[in-house]
């Protein structure tokens, strides 16, 4: 039993980019179009690490780096040689309708608006803020209403890690930050970021949290708040200036190369400047490309199929 | 006096009241039906009004110039001012073609290709464009370089990330494969179970348990069948994820009770005297079933099967769980290959950001509904045709 | 080698062999008949008997081999399996042919065999139920090892919480109690959407059923009934699209017209649309029930001088009540388990509220998102899908049992 | 049973006499869709008498009976022509209110069909609906008296709350009779009221009919010739949708005018 | 109908005579679940004679009849005790193959139940199944001769391909008889074979039965006493699951030994 098609699983964030490449690959080569399924980063890596063989995927996309525990699982199941590829990054933006005045936020302010409990006099109390200007008088007089991704989404994880966790110390949390508020000020809004965009367009009080690509798609109607003074732009995200950005990855199972036809060609196409370069096609659909140097470094690592080591991940 | 007895209702307040209540109740009932019918009407007109635009699209006439640069990047085969108008999909395969047919180099070819999704949307009045592009498109429209036509692509292509290229073929074929597996599994097993229960089984606790169990299965939420398919077919039997086989078997289990129940009804509709007559002729039980009961009940069984399959064909939730919401631009060619199905395709399109996919979604729905309604109509006709009065 | 392949291969080989066996068995019987011996069964039946005596042992070997393979005990090489199957087939055929004699009741044996085969098919549905339970229970147990059943059933906060730490590779920092899995808000959403759906479906469905069975002329009935049933044939994903794209904005507009604030993922619109979907269930089941009320009961009422609606409301409906209730319960169990409509049109926020204009999430939405989301497979959130599935299964099971019992009672009374 | 009758011309197929005519059918024709089930039926039903309708299966007895309280209106395909009068009032007149008509002409069916309500409610339902009595006490009394007249009171007095469907077949049938009596009808139609009952229950019902005829006009369909002979003063013999012969029961049975009647009575067919 | 019989002790409830006994029931008891429907039934059925079973509804006639070809086996709740012999062979012996038994004891039902197949196939089905004839020609012949014996040949010879269900009721019933004859049974059981038919068709069937008795042993259930009198040589009167009286038909009708028989025959109940 063998397989003709490449099988790709993984992140829903990377999915639009990867499926674009997949389609391009199918159209421009004689290989069959790979099968790609959006399972989420965690789900993808789980399937990926299940073992070697036609019933397991060849490539898994991820909107975060592989975890050491996942790496271990891979090793246990005989997926020993893995190539890691970084394709770019994704900024997470706080956006609002263009009908509002532009807003500048800091991560602490966001934390105070979103957290379930906030520190007051060294104690954690239930979040008392209903209005942005209660947090800081410089902020607009608007009800706090934030539409964001649900707990099942990797974007949410990233947001909590990069904003909430990161700011908790400077905001004076006596212990670890734990939860997003559940009193209705923060609204879990489904995996479909598109809907969030639509809704903040209609509800001008609200902010939405989603990936940068959606901002770009809808730049005529929504705009992003600056965070810690940095405006999310492809440049600032790619350079790492914008604080709420994460990298996008995919992982290749070495053992499948040469068994499933076309993996090599697919990977080359994906890593080509044509795709992830600064004029690449993926940029058009919202990928934040890597800075020149980093990109060529990764292109080379991938071309050489440098094996992923556990130490890389720690 | 005698007359007043039977017709004197005019003055009888109580009777008046009863008749008014009668009238009211009748109106309630009729309006319930009217309301339901109005909902159906709204529903269909809504879907159709959203989706009919997807059945036509705009094409632009281009001259493909198979030059050297095009051999590397297909877009260069186009006139510069058309590069932002013609779909990228039209030219991306040019390098491959030129590699395979070196004699193409240096030649040109005039042809029609779809315009980009957003331009198509603009021309259909769905969105605006940047002023410069708009002027250009308007001009081309005027010159007849851009023309509208029937969108055959929608029926001959698979999914695409470029909305102007997206079609339903691969999903339709996936549906076909899945249904094939479902039918192959659920029909024989369902009919055999029904025959056992209706014709063979003694009426004891055990049989009753099977019966209750089947009724229950018919009402188990479909998503739970998804969990079942995931655990049993994919994780235990190792059927490839996303494959028509995995989806088909999962739906097969789901359709099984429906087929059993309708087959039993069909068998039960065969009048007992026929059986008794056959038994009295010295038929064994199996011969009675094979020669007398099945031939008569076959139309009924088929009707139930068609309805069960139609239901399976519209099912999405369990297929999400077994991984059939995948991006499958090419139609599968085998039962173990990854496939997607029409409702899953609709679900995916419904979640796409580009506006062009809204009409695709609605058009996909129109196609799916057309198929389902014709299946159901076939079932109804079959039933009508073979309906017997005993 | 997969199970399927082995079986296919065997079948491919067995079919020609089967022909031969049939021919041999039948010929033996024919020869005997020609000699004037009175055979118990017909010659063809002896033919089939030989086929069976050859094929059964061979298939047994194949299935045993596949089972061994599947359970990972050993993987016997294909050649050996085939050889063994062939040998057993030959032995089976030889024995089968030998025992053909006038007193052999081939027909009875075949009948019995068919009976077993059919029974086997009927058992698949039982196996399915068992498999459903098994396929959710293990993961659910794993979940309940981390989250107490009590918290799960009574907790009012569903907040899977700090899985972001795990995502950040700092899973060991996950603190006890920072995530909570109280399923009440999810079930509240499910029950809310169900209640709305039934509030739409029950009156419309029941009144339609009454109209069809008591008032409509056969012609109107003949057109309206199949039209209504169209609603049952529309896939749920289509309803989901309809709810999200068409109904929700209307609901929000109407609400804001009355000065109310409605969420764009309010639970009301999926509820209404789900109700529309359930109308034909209620109407056709109630229609059946109402039709099965014996005409004599109606005539009894009419003969006393009742009007039509009095007959319906005071005689027919009370008699039909158990059936109507069971239709209602079936509708409820549909609504509880409905997935696509809520996935596409309801919210994902676990929200405990009485206001249907707010967004709420449901059990099924959570199952889908947990299994397709980004969490690691053994994270409590993913496992919670199975726990939720288990509870959902049990609830619908209970509802279906009750409705089955009611229908039975009803049937006993009027059949 | 001693009833004075003069035998009349066979053409009219009607026995007329000194008795009051309660119900009269004239040239009654009935169609189910395109098939005619009754042909020019003429019949006089005498007040406070039992009239039996006999004839082979499918001859139209039930169809005729159901014309008398317009039960046939419930079957959409039915078309009726001709006249039926109740006390000289045409019941098919457009101005007639069917609901009221039926409260004057009660009916008892072949299979006992008590409502799935308590015994009490079975009886009380219609009187309450028609506003025949006011107040609980009056209702109680009516229920009791109806049950008494139907000869059921002794058997059910202490369990008026149990569902009517839990009684035995014969009791159910008497309950249905009590129910019909409770609205104080003038005519009671009975369609094979005892054919689903065992011999003992049949005898009870027959006795009851004999008592009821002092107060009500009764038309009864039966396939049991002996039953007709036992309970009815007059008997009409139906055959293929026509009344072949109508006469007082004794004469019809002992000295039928028509060959077909004789053949039927002696079991040549049916 | 001239049959020699000696009247015997009432205790045995069996008329014995010079005739061969084809079927004999001895102390036959039958239960449906917990309710007993037959009590110690003894009956001899004489070869090439028509034996009628009469009695009020529900007295067990059909139940008894269906014991004779073990049709009752099909009802799961049925339990039978006692012996039934066909030519001295116990048909309830475990070694008996029911399917074969039924090809020796044919049955005709109350309502004609032709298979929904062509007339030809209706007759040809069972012979083909049992391998009674080989070859198309032989089968054609068998079909023709069976239809002839059932007196149907003339009416259907030119349309053997039309479905059996399209014949008239009486023709259907004769088709069913032809079908039963085609497998060459020794005994034919008939359960009210004419009760669903019109008088004319009834007469035809009765004639047919009269002819058939030259070749077959016939047991017929009927609720029409006159019919029993017309066709049967012997009659057994059932009441509440017991045979009250069995005798040659003339004697039973004109001079019943038992009061209950007389009551029934004169229409006091039933
Ligand atoms: N609802 C109906 N629709 C069509 N035809 C009917 C209907 N009811 C009765 N008939 C036909 O009308 C004729 C007379 O029927 P009816 O029921 O009056 O006979 P009956 O004398 O009462 O017979 P039985 O003794 O069987 O009750 C029969 O041929 C019957 O088939
Ligand atoms: N399948 C059955 N299950 C339970 N009881 C039955 C069954 N068939 C018949 N009975 C009962 O057995 C008794 C005898 O029934 P049987 O049918 O033999 O009477 P019958 O004399 O043929 O009556 P009829 O003239 O109505 O056909 C009746 O009390 C009947 O209710
Ligand atoms: Mg009648
Ligand atoms: Mg009987
Ligand atoms: O699917 P994710 O990109 O959110 O992990």
Automatic annotation (TrEMBL), chain B:
Keywords: Cell membrane, Membrane, Transmembrane, Transmembrane helix, Transport. SUPFAM superfamilies: MetI-like. It is a multi-pass membrane protein. One of its GO terms (cellular component) is plasma membrane. It is found in: Cell inner membrane; Cell membrane. Residues 172-379 form the ABC transmembrane type-1 domain. Its main location: membrane. One of its GO terms (molecular function) is phosphate transmembrane transporter activity. It comes from the Bacteria. GO terms for biological process: phosphate ion transmembrane transport. The chain crosses the membrane at residues 27-48, 168-197, 217-238, 244-267, 362-382. Belongs to the binding-protein-dependent transport system permease family. CysTW subfamily. This is Phosphate transport system permease protein PstA. The gene is pstA.
Automatic annotation (TrEMBL), chain C:
Residues 187-403 form the ABC transmembrane type-1 domain. Pfam families: BPD_transp_1 (PF00528), DUF3708 (PF12501). InterPro entries: MetI-like, MetI-like_sf, Phosphate_PstC, PstC_N. It comes from the Bacteria. It is found in: Cell inner membrane; Cell membrane. GO terms for molecular function: phosphate transmembrane transporter activity. One of its GO terms (cellular component) is plasma membrane. Keywords: Cell inner membrane, Cell membrane, Membrane, Phosphate transport, Transmembrane, Transmembrane helix, Transport. GO terms for biological process: phosphate ion transport. The chain crosses the membrane at residues 6-25, 46-68, 80-101, 113-138, 186-210, 230-252, 264-282, 315-336, 385-407. It is a multi-pass membrane protein. Its main location: membrane. Part of the binding-protein-dependent transport system for phosphate; probably responsible for the translocation of the substrate across the membrane. Belongs to the binding-protein-dependent transport system permease family. CysTW subfamily. This is Phosphate transport system permease protein.
UniProtKB/TrEMBL annotation, chains D, E:
GO terms for molecular function: ATP binding; ATP hydrolysis activity; phosphate transmembrane transporter activity. CDD domains: ABC_PstB_phosphate_transporter. The keyword Nucleotide-binding applies. Keywords: ATP-binding, Nucleotide-binding, Phosphate transport, Transport. SUPFAM superfamilies: P-loop containing nucleoside triphosphate hydrolases (SSF52540). It comes from Sediminicurvatus halobius. The keyword Transport applies. This is Phosphate ABC transporter ATP-binding protein. Pfam families: ABC_tran. GO terms for biological process: phosphate ion transmembrane transport. One of its GO terms (cellular component) is membrane. Residues 23-265 form the ABC transporter domain.
């Amino acid at each position: 039993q063998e397989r003709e098609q490449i099988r790709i699983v993984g992140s829903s964030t990377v999915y639009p980019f990867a499926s674009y490449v997949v389609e391009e690959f199918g159209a421009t080569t004689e290989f069959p179009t790979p099968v790609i399924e959006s399972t989420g980063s965690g789900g993808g890596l789980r399937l990926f690490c299940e073992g070697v063989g036609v019933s397991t995927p060849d490539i898994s996309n991820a909107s975060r780096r592989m975890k050491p525990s996942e790496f271990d699982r891979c090793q246990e199941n005989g997926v020993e040689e893995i190539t890691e590829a970084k394709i770019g990054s994704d900024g997470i933006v706080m956006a609002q309708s263009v009908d509002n005045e532009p807003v500048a936020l800091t991560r602490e302010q966001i934390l105070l608006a979103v957290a379930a409990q906030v520190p007051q006099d060294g104690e954690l109390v239930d979040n008392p803020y209903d209005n942005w200007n209660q947090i800081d008088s410089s902020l607009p007089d608007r009800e706090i209403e934030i539409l964001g991704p649900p707990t099942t989404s990797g974007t949410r994880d990233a947001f909590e890690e990069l904003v909430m966790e990161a700011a908790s110390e400077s905001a004076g949390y006596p212990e670890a930050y734990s939860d997003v508020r559940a009193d209705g000020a923060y609204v879990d809004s489904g995996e479909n970021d598109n809907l969030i965009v639509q809704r903040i367009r209609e509800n001008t009080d609200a902010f939405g949290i989603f990936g940068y690509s959606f901002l770009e798609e809808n730049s005529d109607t929504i705009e992003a708040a600056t965070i810690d003074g940095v405006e999310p732009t492809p440049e600032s995200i790619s350079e790492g200036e914008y604080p709420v950005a994460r990298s996008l990855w995919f992982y290749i199972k070495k053992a499948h190369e040469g068994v499933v036809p076309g993996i090599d060609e697919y990977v080359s196409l994906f890593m080509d400047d044509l795709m992830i370069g600064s004029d690449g096609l993926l940029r058009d659909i919202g990928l934040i490309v890597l800075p020149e140097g980093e990109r060529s470094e990764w292109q080379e690592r991938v071309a050489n199929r440098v094996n992923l080591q556990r130490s890389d991940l720690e | 006096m005698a007359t007043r007895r039977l017709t004197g209702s005019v003055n009888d307040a109580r009777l008046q009241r009863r008749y008014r209540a009668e009238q009211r109740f009748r109106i309630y009932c009729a309006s319930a039906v009217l309301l339901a019918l109005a909902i159906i009407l709204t529903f269909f007109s809504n879907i159709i009004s959203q989706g009919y635009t997807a059945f036509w699209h705009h094409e632009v006439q281009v001259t493909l110039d198979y030059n050297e640069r095009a051999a590397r990047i297909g877009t260069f085969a186009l006139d510069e001012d058309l590069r932002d108008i013609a779909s990228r999909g039209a030219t991306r395969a040019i390098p491959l073609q030129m590699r395979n047919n070196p004699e193409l180099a240096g030649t040109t070819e005039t042809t029609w290709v779809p315009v980009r999704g957003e331009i198509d949307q603009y021309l259909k009045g769905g969105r605006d464009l940047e002023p410069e592009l708009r002027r250009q498109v308007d001009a081309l429209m005027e010159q007849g370089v851009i023309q509208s036509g029937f969108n055959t692509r929608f029926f001959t292509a698979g999914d695409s990330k470029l909305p102007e290229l997206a079609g339903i073929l691969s999903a339709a074929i996936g549906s076909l494969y899945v249904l094939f597996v479902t039918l192959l599994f659920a029909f024989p097993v369902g009919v055999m179970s029904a025959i056992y229960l209706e014709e063979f089984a003694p009426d004891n606790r055990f049989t009753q348990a099977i019966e209750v169990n089947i009724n229950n299965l018919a009402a188990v939420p479909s998503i739970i069948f998804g969990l079942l398919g995931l655990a049993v077919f994919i994780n235990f039997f190792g059927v490839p994820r996303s494959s028509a086989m995995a989806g088909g078997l999962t739906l097969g289990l789901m359709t099984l009770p429906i087929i059993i129940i309708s087959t039993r009804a069909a068998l039960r509709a065969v009048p007992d005297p026929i059986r008794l007559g056959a038994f009295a002729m010295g038929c064994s039980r199996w011969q009675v079933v094979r020669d007398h009961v099945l031939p008569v009940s076959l139309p009924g069984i088929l009707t139930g099967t068609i309805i069960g399959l139609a239901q399976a064909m519209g099912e999405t939730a369990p297929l999400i769980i077994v991984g059939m919401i995948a991006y499958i631009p090419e139609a599968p060619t085998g039962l173990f290959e990854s496939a997607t199905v029409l409702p899953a395709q609709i679900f995916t399109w419904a979640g796409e950001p580009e506006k062009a996919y809204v009409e695709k979604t609605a058009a996909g729905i129109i196609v799916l509904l057309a198929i389902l309604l014709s299946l159901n109509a076939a079932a109804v006709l079959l039933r009508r045709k073979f309906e017997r009065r005993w | 080698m997969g199970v399927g392949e082995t079986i296919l291969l065997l079948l491919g080989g067995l079919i020609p062999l089967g022909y031969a066996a049939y021919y041999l068995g039948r010929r033996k019987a024919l020869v005997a008949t020609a000699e004037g011996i009175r055979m118990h069964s017909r010659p063809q039946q002896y033919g089939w008997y030989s086929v069976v005596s050859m094929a059964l042992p061979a298939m047994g070997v194949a299935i045993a081999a596949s089972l061994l393979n599947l359970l990972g005990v050993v993987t016997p090489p294909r050649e050996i399996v085939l050889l063994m199957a062939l040998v057993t087939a030959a032995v089976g055929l030889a024995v089968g042919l030998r025992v053909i004699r006038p007193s052999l009741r081939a027909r009875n044996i075949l009948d019995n065999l068919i009976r077993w085969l059919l029974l086997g098919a009927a058992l698949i549905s039982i196996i399915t139920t068992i498999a459903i339970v098994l396929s959710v229970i293990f993961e659910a147990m794993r979940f309940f090892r981390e989250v107490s059943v009590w918290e799960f059933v009574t907790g009012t906060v569903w907040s899977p919480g700090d899985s972001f730490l795990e995502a950040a590779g700092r899973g060991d920092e996950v603190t006890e109690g920072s995530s909570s899995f109280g399923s009440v808000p999810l079930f509240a959403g499910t029950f809310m959407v169900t209640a709305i759906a039934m509030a739409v479906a029950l009156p419309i469905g029941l009144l339609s059923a009454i109209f069809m069975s008591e008032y409509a002329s056969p012609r109107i009935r003949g057109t309206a009934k199949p039209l209504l049933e169209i609603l049952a044939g529309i896939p749920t994903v289509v309803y989901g699209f309809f709810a999200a794209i068409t109904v929700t904005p209307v609901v929000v507009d109407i609400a804001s017209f009355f000065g109310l604030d409605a969420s764009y993922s309010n639970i009301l619109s999926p509820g209404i649309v789900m109700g529309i979907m359930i109308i034909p269930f209620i109407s056709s089941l109630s229609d059946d029930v109402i039709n099965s009320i014996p005409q004599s009961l109606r005539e009894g009422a009419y003969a006393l001088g009742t009007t039509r609606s009095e007959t319906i409301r005071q005689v027919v409906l009370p008699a039909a009540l158990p059936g109507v209730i069971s239709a209602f319960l079936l509708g409820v169990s549909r609504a509880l388990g409905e997935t696509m409509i809520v996935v596409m049109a309801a919210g994902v926020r676990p929200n405990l509220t009485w206001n249907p204009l707010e967004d709420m999430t449901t059990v099924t939405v959570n199952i889908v998102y947990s299994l397709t989301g980004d969490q690691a497979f053994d994270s409590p959130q993913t496992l919670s899908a199975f726990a939720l599935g288990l509870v959902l299964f049990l609830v619908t099971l209970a509802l279906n049992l009750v409705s089955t019992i009611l229908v039975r009672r009803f049937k006993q009374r009027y059949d | 049973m001693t009833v004075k009758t003069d035998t009349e011309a066979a053409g009219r197929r009607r026995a007329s006499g000194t008795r009051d005519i309660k119900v009269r059918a004239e040239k009654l024709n009935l169609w189910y869709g395109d098939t005619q089930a009754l042909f020019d039926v003429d019949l006089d039903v005498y007040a406070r008498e039992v009239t039996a309708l006999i004839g082979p299966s499918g001859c139209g007895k039930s169809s005729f009976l159901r014309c008398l309280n317009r039960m046939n209106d419930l079957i959409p395909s039915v078309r009726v022509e001709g006249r039926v009068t109740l006390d000289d009032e045409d019941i098919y007149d457009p101005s007639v209110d069917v609901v009221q008509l039926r409260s004057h002409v009660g009916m008892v069916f072949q299979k006992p069909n008590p409502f799935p309500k308590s015994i009490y409610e079975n009886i009380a339902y219609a009187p309450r609906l028609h506003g025949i009595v006011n107040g609980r006490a009056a209702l109680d009394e009516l229920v009791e008296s109806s049950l008494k007249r139907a000869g059921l009171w002794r058997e059910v007095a202490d369990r008026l709350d149990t569902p009517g469907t839990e009684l035995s077949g014969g009791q159910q049938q008497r309950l249905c009779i009590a129910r019909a009596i409770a609205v104080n009808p003038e005519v009671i139609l009975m369609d094979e009221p005892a054919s689903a009952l065992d011999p003992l229950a049949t005898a009870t019902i027959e006795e009851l009919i004999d008592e009821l005829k002092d107060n009500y006009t009764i038309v009864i369909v039966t396939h049991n010739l002996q039953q007709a002979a036992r309970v009815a003063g007059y008997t009409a013999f139906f055959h293929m949708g026509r009344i072949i012969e109508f006469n007082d029961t004794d004469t019809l049975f002992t000295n039928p005018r028509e060959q077909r009647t004789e053949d039927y009575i002696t079991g040549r067919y049916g």
